[in-house]
Amino acid sequence: MSDQSVDGEEVRHVAALARVDLDEAEVEAFAEQFGEILDAFETLDEVPEVEREDDLENVMREDEVRESLDREEALRNAPESEDGYFKGPSVS
Amino acid sequence: MSGIFITEEHIEGDSEGPLSGATVAVKDNISTEGVRTTCGSAMLTEYVPPYDATVIERLKAAGAEIVGKANMDEFGMGSTTETSAFGPAPNPAAEGRVPGGSSGGSAAAVAAGEADVALGTDTGGSVRNPAAFCGVVGIKPTYGLVSRYGLIAYANSLEQIGPLAPTVEDAARLLDVISGPDERDATTRAEGKNSDYASSADGDVEGLSIGVPTELVEGADEGVRETFWDAIATLESRGASYHEVSLPSIEHAVAAYYVIAMSEASSNLARFDGVRYGPATDREGDWNEVFSAVRERGFGEEVKRRILLGTYALSAGYHEKYYKKAQDARAWVKQDFDDALAEADVLASPTMPVPPFEAGESLEDPLQMYLSDANTVPVNLANLPAISVPAGETDGLPVGLQLIGPEFGERRIIRAASALE
Questions:
Q1: pLDDT tens sequence across B209-255
Q2: In the predicted model, is pLDDT for residue A1 greater than 70?
């Protein structure tokens, strides 16, 4: 049995945050699997705090106008467009 | 052999070069101008990129002929190529078994002789795993060696495009073509410029010091372990020596890898909203409702699972517990590898702890599938290069040997791997 139990309500909540609809069967299956998978992730609790040694540096370029995709190309894969714009559902 | 390619369309090279006359299969998450690129997903069934990935430009300039877009686990999420929305790919080297994944179509194309070489991508083993399962060679380059421009992202901080080929030298030659800095990918580094990896496939391992991380051998199947030790004995007989090493951080690598990869995926895949690309839906409603409906329809089960778990790991109250701890584990794994590689030229392990799964075997239990990546994911966490080379067989099934090198130590792992051919 899983220590980290996840119920259907939590799965629905996180699915809503991620904007993915799920059917009932998926909610049930995920609730069971997530408990088991999150249990496995629990082992991260034993990891000590570790000093990072990354030597990161910014990579910058000149801020100059360049060629880019033209509008028609950029819109080519959109299911719907209008007057040179992407067309989406209303925001609210 | 059906199931290897999602789209079989030829793209001719546009000049003479080191790959003139060579045919290449390209994993279907690498953008090809004018040729559809699906990521193995119903979300992108109709998607035709308006531009080429940098690696595709380099293939064309090198004279290669692309023969098709290879099947893959949906968005690279899987270890068997069974999560593809276009159906599974076969394993030409082991009938009835999966070809591994997520670059299973690329490995299968090479194993079946449908392409001379192939490109895959490796986020947590997705080049090395199918190379091992199909009995071919696969290289995961150092992070930053190969441009990811035009690669449809799954987990940016982990993934690299890498070659698959029948021989170490062929894989190295393809790596020579695709490596090197690219101003369109700010994470690329100068080291791959004017590389000559192919010439290092000379089989010379005299004096080579090999570290064997015990944690990566102990958990493997008996037949895999036997094949692995036979290959180490072969390297010894050619003048190499080995010693065992311990990497205590390794037991946390799978958890850390999946937390980071899923978190990055949940963010990266937010772009699939049904507006710029994606299947049309007749669902009425506001943005959120239509967005959610498109994603229910366009994404398969494994992709939904990872997006949801990634969203969970990043959500309020859990970020410190999962994501931050995973980053600590990542830094620890990197330190462990650096320490081990200070005492050895290369590290060796079985690529996969098991022989190829039977088709359909692993789909019901996602956690078991994640755990099978135990030997490959630590390399991605540490940003290091690794190669999988055929080591032999167990019960007639291919076994791969993984060699891991220091950052930009591609020549060293290529040389060591070539001694096993």
A1: 999 999 999 999 999 999 999 999 999 999 999 999 999 999 999 99
A2: no
Cβ of A43 within 8 Å of Cβ of B332? The answer is: no
Query: Could you give the CA distance from residue B356 to residue B95 in angstroms, rounded to a whole number?
Result: 10
Q: With 0.95 as the threshold, say if the pTM is over it.
A: yes
- Starting at the edge strand found earlier in the chain, the sheet holding B386-394 runs B5-7, B65-70, B23-27, B117-122, B160-165, B137-140, B386-394, B397-404, B346-350, B209-213, B241-245
φ/ψ of B69, rounded to 5, equals -100, 120
Asked if A41 lies within 8 A of B258 by C-beta distance, the reply is yes
Pick among A4, A37, A55 to test the B interface (most B CBs inside 10 A): A37
Q: Is the ipTM of this complex over 0.90?
A: yes
Q: Which domains does chain A show, CATH number per domain? A: 8-45 (1.10.20)
For each of the domains in chain B, give its residue range(s) and CATH number, in order of start: 5-203+350-359+384-419 (3.90.1300.10)
> Is the pLDDT reported for residue A3 higher than 70?
no
Q: What is the pLDDT of residue A2?
A: 45
> Picking from A18-27, A42-51, B137-146, which range would have the lowest pLDDT averaged per residue?
A42-51
For residue B85, the distance in angstroms to the closest alpha carbon of chain A comes to: 17
What is the distance in angstroms between the Cα of A68 and the nearest Cα belonging to chain B? Answer: 10
